[in-house]
Structures are given as C-alpha cells and as structure tokens.
Amino acid sequence: MKLVGLWAIGFLASLLQTLSDRFAVTSEESESVATSLLQTELQRLRSPKFATRADVCTDTVPVTGSARGLPAIGYIACCSPEDVKPANVRPGVARYLAAGGRRVVTAPCYGNEHAVGQGLRDSGVPREHIWVTTALDPPDEALQNPRHWAAGQVDASLHRLNVSYVDDMYLHWGLENEYKTKISLANVTKEQYVELGEQYLELYRGLIDAQRAGKVRHIGVGVHTQKEIEYLMNATGVKPDIMHGWITPFMPEKQLSFAKWAMNQGMTLSAWGPYNWDSLDEPAELESHRSITSELAKKYGATASQIVARWYLDKGIAMCTSMLEPSYVKDDLHCLRSSLSAEDTALLESVKWDCQKTDFFQPLPGCSED
Ligand SMILES: *[C@@H]1O[C@H](CO)[C@@H](O)[C@H](O)[C@H]1NC(C)=O
Ligand SMILES: *[C@@H]1O[C@H](CO)[C@@H](O)[C@H](O)[C@H]1NC(C)=O
Ligand SMILES: *[C@@H]1O[C@H](CO)[C@@H](O)[C@H](O)[C@H]1NC(C)=O
C-alpha cells in the first residue's frame, strides 16, 4: 500500500510538473485542460486514501483581534527562481491546501499573487478557511502621495489575488534594512533619509486605512528595527498585529530577544526561512546542526525538519516555508505532537550564528541596535 502511495505521489509530482509547464502556455484552451487535470488530481489528494488528516498540523497561533488564529505551518511562495515561478506556484498552493495546509504567503515583488489566487480557487477550499498574507513593498524613491499610493497597491494585490480581502498585509521591510542592503541608497543625505522615513509612516497609515475599509484584516511589519516599529506605533497609536522576519533556532541571542520584545508588545511572530541554515551554514555549523537535528529526530521518531518545525510550535511562532515539492508538504505539514523537552530545546539552539552573518544575509533586526 505504502509503495503504491509513494508511486502515486511520484506520479502526481511528474504530472503536476507537466501541468506546471502547461500553465506557462498562454493559450486559454490548454490552460483549461491543465486546470481540469489538476482538479482531478486534487480530488484524489482529498480522498481518504491520500489524506492522512489525523496528523496534519492544524495548530494556530493567536492574533490580536482574530477569532481564528494564524495557521502555524504556512506555505510561502518564495524565494528561489523555482519557488516564485507562477507556473509552479499555482499547483503548489492548490496541493498544499488540498493536503490540509491553511496559510499562503506571497508579496507583489514575488510576481506570483495571481498564481496564488488561482491556486486558492483550484484547491476548492473555502476562502474563509484560508489565511492569505501579502505585503506592501515600499519603494526607494520619494512618492507624491504615499498614503494614496498604498491604497492603490492594496487594491492591486486584491485584484491580482482575486479576493475581496487579505487576512494580513505587512510593510515588507523598514528603511534601515533598505539603507544597509541597497547600493542605490548609499548616498542619501540625512534629510532624504528622514523624508523617506516619513514616507514609510505614510505607507503604514495606508495599511491602517485599508484595514478600516475591510480590505485587510490585520496589518504587520517585516524586517523593521524596534525603533522603527516604535516610531510607527507612537505616530499612529496602532500596533502591528504581526511581525514577520527571518527567525530560526540558530539566531544570535540578540535577535531572539528582539523577537521576544515584539511578542511582549502583543505582536504575533511569523517566521520565514526555517530551513535556510541548510544552505547558509559554514561546514562546521552544518555538521553540528545536522548531527543535532538527526539525533533529536531519532529520539522523537520524527524527521529533522519536523524537529525544527516543533521548535516554532513550542515557542508559539508561526512559520512558513516553500512547499513546492510534494515531499515537503508531507513532511512539514505533519508535525510532531509532543513538545521538545527544555534540555533538547537548549541542545537545538546551542550552535548559534554570529550577528555579522545574520545581518549580512537578511537581518532580523536586533543585532545592530544597542
Ligand atoms: C475570480 O474569482 C471568481 C470566483 O470567486 C471567478 O469566477 C473568476 O473567474 C476569477 N477571476 C479571475 C481573473 O481569475
Ligand atoms: C555614491 O557616492 C560615491 C562617491 O561620490 C560614488 O562613487 C558612487 O557612485 C555613488 N553611488 C551611487 C549609487 O550613487
Ligand atoms: C515611543 O514612545 C515610547 C513611550 O513614550 C518611548 O519610550 C519611545 O522612545 C518612543 N520611541 C520612538 C522611536 O519614538
């Protein structure tokens, strides 16, 4: 039975690959053929034979003002060229949702909001059961009317996703991170920096407008420093409901403290990049991380990625990762039911990166602030 199942999943993967390629064809006719083939496969996925629903992770993390909570194990349509490709994202999202996943994360700069929206509809899962996240991508240049511009961006995202509201939308990054990482901003004067900072505030106000208009249920921030978040909160009196960022068990203590600060303010944490360490580690770190996660995996009767996923659940942090590969959906969505012990959590966190490294790749602010 198991072998058949595996074979069928392999077959499904290759079929979906074919479908993916077909989605790339612009002809409407072949697109509708591909869509109906995908529908048939999704029906199979939903059938009791495929669905091992009992151990699908339905955990959620509380969000201020939401009865529902943020699904703990999300699918982010990012970040490799394959991960963001609309032709891959459409069936990827549908497959993840059909398998029981309930949270999809995109952003205008990924160029796949339209495909995400198609995947939502293909899955047949009712809209109200899905948590949809997208972002407002702040531009580097000065805008005439940033607040108005933000309103247009919100509408454009809703249009591309073909939904009447998103569950959360966040200011994708703060100015300090842009300033540190973008060569184009290397020479801005102090005055220009302050002006751009005010522009970010206007964009945040635009998100608040969208929330009041019912187009965005919750607003958030991503890659902002504590000072920047305080600035937004102090100026508007509105706290972001969700803080997005790169958070892993291997972050320096300073960054984890920053994440704790946000939690203490009442923000829900949404982490991306749970498995990035696999490619970012130095050889010695990689060896340690691999040996620790596989030791724990053996102990808990889980996979190494389920051990890392469990860390987020234990901390009350939602996470999202690309689940383009059917095997990732299977692995990541089926989480470990028991918590890691305090000792094992400490072991998992024991090999840390230094601040330099995390600042360089993609900072969760915290290191640079003293
Ligand atoms: C948008 O969604 C509706 C169903 O909610 C569907 O009928 C329509 O075809 C979709 N539009 C596009 C452009 O995909
Ligand atoms: C910034 O200024 C330096 C020194 O004047 C110059 O070499 C560099 O090209 C400038 N960078 C940009 C992005 O304008
Ligand atoms: C925001 O307000 C708090 C409380 O008044 C203050 O401690 C903090 O320094 C302010 N932060 C910023 C960045 O304005």
From TrEMBL:
Keywords: NADP, Oxidoreductase, Signal. Residues 1-20 form the signal peptide. Residues 86-351 form the NADP-dependent oxidoreductase domain. Gene3D superfamilies: NADP-dependent oxidoreductase domain (3.20.20.100). The keyword NADP applies. One of its GO terms (molecular function) is oxidoreductase activity, acting on the CH-OH group of donors, NAD or NADP as acceptor. Belongs to the aldo/keto reductase family. This is DkgA protein. It comes from Symbiodinium natans.
